[in-house]
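Good morning,

Both structures are done.
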Amino acid sequence: AVISYFDQLCKIYPPHIKDEETDFFVPVMDYLSDQEKKFMVQEFYFFDRNIIHEEHEWLISSLEKHAPDF
């Protein structure tokens, strides 16, 4: 059952992201000032830079809990 859900997600996710990027994100940029755009890019940079560390911390913590001898 889980594999079926992931299969469905893999089919709908790429078109969803494409729609978001082309039909939402780009048009919305016209409503923002240059300063707001710059701030948004900076915030995304910090978010993106930290997310990989957070995911790795979660993974390691999870492995330590479920496989203490790992």
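Second structure follows.
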Amino acid sequence: EWHKEVDALRKMCEINGIRPLVERSRSGKGAHVWIFFKKAIPASVARNFGFLLLIVLKMLKYMRISLVLVI
């Protein structure tokens, strides 16, 4: 299941011009999605941005909306 979620998050980022780096976790039971910013930003802003991406992804999944609409 996590494979699909990570792939959906990666696709959503790429559709919106964000180039994430996906790294499989050491345990093999999950993955990390890295997003690098052009300049330094506070950790809290980066964390909130990540949470926002996850919230939007869950909303799209719940509403069964295609990721193509998130432009």
